[in-house]
Amino acid sequence: MTGTATAPAPTTGPLTGSPAGQRPTRRIWSYWRFYLALSPFYLLFAVFGLYPMLSTIVLAFQRWDGLTPRRFNGLDNFRFLVQDPTFWLSLQNTVVLFLMSTVPTLVLALVLAVMLQSAVRFTNVYRIAYFIPNVTSLVAMAIFFSSIFSTNFGLVNAALRSLGIPQQDWLGQPWGIKIAISTMIVWQWVGYNTLIYLAGLQAIPKDQYEAAKVDGAGAVRTFFSITLPQLRPVVLFTVIMSTIGGLQTFTEPQVMVGNSGGTGQSGMTVVLFFYRAAFLDNDYGYAAAIALSIFALVLLFTAINWRIFRGRGEDR
Amino acid sequence: MTRLRLRGVALHAVLVLALLVFLLPFVWTVIMASNTTADIYRFPPKFTFGSHFGDNVRQVLDNVAFFQSMANTATVAISTTVLVLFFDSLAAFTFAKFRFPGRNALFVVLLATMLLPAQLGAVPQFQTMALLGWVGSLKALIIPGAANAFGIFWMRQYFKNSIHNELVEAATLDGCGFFGTYWHVALPSARPALAFLGLFTFVGSWNDYMWPLIVLTNPDHLTLQVALSTLNRSHGVDYSMVMTGALMAMVPLVIIFAIFARQFIKGATEGAVRG
Q1: What domains are defined for chain A?
Q2: Structural domain for B107, as ranges
Q3: Sign of the torsion formed by the C-alpha atoms of B235, B241, B243 and B246
Q4: Residues 151-180 in A contacting B (C-alpha not used; CB under 8 Å)
Q5: What pLDDT, in 10s, does the model give residues A146-174?
């Protein structure tokens, strides 16, 4: 399969690499152009992706402060990790924040997408406006949300006060911190997921709806028996993306309540915990052990999502 | 008919309400940035635009090296975007249109790399930067992000579906050569895909926070996001000034997004549905 002239009629599949007229027997180096074209990514990945990952695995079994020589300490880092209450707290915070932000985000997004689909006019205005939060700087928005949730003068407390409800010390108490952070995440991600769902809704064949109509199915039944099942792959995509993003939450708590995680360390997520161990405490071996646990956590959650959404799909 | 119209009105009422919720933070940011902190800090707060924007801007400029940070951010975002567009599209074109030993294996490796959360390798990454002497330098932000698996994967789909082999063959017969074909045939035909990938990379790079926070150790040489966070930490009580900084940091991006919004949204949503 060498020589380009073999391809018939308009096709878009891969071509063999040889310029026309070259002999069929080719040594591997005759493909050097292709390898050269691919090399930037693989070189960069090797140096800045693969090596750090492998090095992190080794580091997780060592003790190192960056100054004195590295020393192997077996499973000490992991032993210390499972006994570290802050680690368990950060895991709990991360999962709670993930649920508090992802569930409302995806439900609201689905509702808005269904509504947007039946809207005829202004759809482009809505789409652009809904998407803007997603391209806005996380740091700027974290500052904004900490301002509206601020104790004495924030917009949220001003609204409560005008309704006669006593104002809350949002960023000074554990649940307040979680509410402020997840509000920001919801604000930033509802629009993006709405547009993903909208694209998914528009891809559902119209005749299915017509068939349901003929069968006399109401709007609610149609939604649960046609729309949702058809949307399953798209929902899986959004859940996986939210999981990967949610488990790596860092900027929001770091900017809103600082490196400490705030009152009761309520904003201490696993990635913030990792950042502290590595770059504030210079406890590199420990940080590496944390990093591996986060990676395991992401894989676990992705696998769970996959099972829930794909597994049930195959049963049908 | 009236029932239908009523439903339409209710529908748009909800959609407009959502739109206001999404846009309110921007309006409120502008209100805060144009008033004094005292005006925002009273009850009820001032809900109208004030006349102190100039003062606030001056204060921001006094407290952080704003233009330096903006220039740094622009340098990083533009360089990263140009490099990503070039390296990713070249690799994608190669994967999409040519056959060579090891192609499939290399592509599987490429897909697998997307599963690795890069920030978790931050400690050895930092050590590597120290070895290279790049700590505190913008190179530490630009070079590691100069090519990425997502972009290659995305562009490859585009090249596979949109460029006919005949075109590539004709170019080769004309003596274009591999790189000539890439430059004269593949690149010009991939404009929409390049536009999305470019915007996506630019936005991501502009807003990147954790890695710049780690690797930019010189307080006079930061990116906007890190400078903004520093400003917030040291002058957090002066909201109108900090919000002015936030506004100044996000305006360029909002303008860019507004110009290219349609292409961006199209690119961002169709990948999800196809996959």
Answers
A1: 79-315 (1.10.3720.10)
A2: 64-235
A3: negative
A4: 152-153, 155, 158, 161-162
A5: 989 988 778 898 889 889 998 889 999 99
